[in-house]
Amino acid sequence: MAKARRVLVVGALGKMGEKVRAAVADEATLSLGAALEAAGHPGLGATVEDGVRVDDDAKAAFGSADVAIDFSVPAATLANLRFAADAGVAYVTGTTGFDDAERDEIAAHAARIPVLHAPNFSVAVNVLAWLTREAARRLGAGFDAEIVELHHAAKRDAPSGTALRLGEAIAEGRGQRLADHLVLERAGEIGARPDGAIGIQTLRGGDNPGEHTVLFTGRGERLELIHRSHTRDHFARGAVRAAVWLLGRPPGLYRIEDALGLD
């Protein structure tokens, strides 16, 4: 049996980090190689799965890994990607909230190592994006498209990366550019809905891990596509599945659709 490949979990003691560690433990081809936390974290020095010690030394952590899995914040992800590129470690990240310059930086690192960046690692959500694209293509211009997303009160970016990905799927199905049709805010005397608009409405509250509804509204009928998350477990399982797929790939910026075989 081949030796298990080593995974570095970024933010190993956070809510998603704990889920990722559990998913790694369930994957026979992987083992925990390193657990990274921010400097000053109270859990530094603790021992987790496989006798791994939680550390804040990123250079050392990447020296003990074949692939990293990261759900954190843009600044931390970009900093860790630099270490990953220097160490030749594949990188899977579900961090959202990047601006255009930061996305360009991710692409630059992907010229040196394989990077898979996705706003959502749920297999079902990515099937939802595929269905959304196909619905937009087949329903045509006679149906207005809106997206409503609900997340927990602590989420820092809005709209969610998943909602934006669903908006892109609608635009792709229509042969549009999302930036030309995206509507994020409505207030006051705004006039009639513009033709081809793709609206995203953001809701925040409680501890909801994530809920997305895509509405295609026509004359006398409406199609709704809905995904609701009840835990974070499936995000972690999807990220681990992506990590297994990414290992051994050449440098490049990959999509979750590539790993799942969705076109």
Describe the structure in your own words:
- By secondary structure, the protein is of the alpha/beta class.
- The chain has two domains: 5-117 and 232-260, NAD(P)-binding Rossmann-like Domain (Rossmann fold, 3-Layer(aba) Sandwich); 123-229, Dihydrodipicolinate Reductase, domain 2 (2-Layer Sandwich).
- Helix content is 36%, strand content 24%.
- It is built from nine helices and twelve strands.
- The strands form two sheets. It has a seven-stranded parallel beta sheet with strand order 3-2-1-4-5-6-12, sandwiched between helices. The protein has a five-stranded mixed beta sheet with strand order 8-9-7-10-11.
- Helix 4 (100-109) links the parallel strand 5 and strand 6 (114-117).
- Helix 5 runs parallel beside helix 6.
- The protein starts with a strand and ends with a helix.
- The mean pLDDT is 96.
